[in-house]
Amino acid sequence: MKPFLTFCALCCFIGIFKLPIEYYTFLRILVSAGALLVLYHTITSRQPYFSIVFLAILILFNPVFPIYLYRKGIWIPIDTITGILFLLINFIEKRCLKKKRKLPKKHRNMHYRYTRELFPETESLTLKN
Question: CB under 8 Å to 36, separation ≥6 — which residues?
Answer without folding.
Answer: 58
